[in-house]
Amino acid sequence: MSLWDILVSIFWFMLLVAWFWLLIAIIGDIFRDEKMGGVAKGAWCLFVILLPWLGVLMYLIVRGRSMNERAARQAAEHEKAFQQYVRTAAGPSEPSVADELGKLADLRARGAISDADYESAKSRVLGGTAPNATPGEVSGDVPRHSVNPV
Q: Is 70 left (phi over 0), alpha (psi -120 to 50) or beta?
């Protein structure tokens, strides 16, 4: 077998691979289109399978632009679903009790709050009532994220 025969075989093999790739993309697009009816979907499938290159080229000429729009819309829907999943998997954005206690300890160490203020805020963060709490200052009335470092 000569080098020329090998190159020709590679060329025909690449054309076959390109046709299969286009065929799969086009059939996927045909069934993704909600506006096209069942008869039209069947006709396009028969056309691209029975007359391979002509069917694929005609589909790309006739419906190529809308094919791209459907693919972009589906990609946007997948991205939106992924972002929603990430938001739900990440959990709530409010700080944990350990974070709050760490902030309080840091404020006390820097001298920003007194020991009495630290104990009062710590009690609220842990879910109890502050030692000198007024009636409206019960732990349920005070949000956890109310302690912010200065």
A: alpha
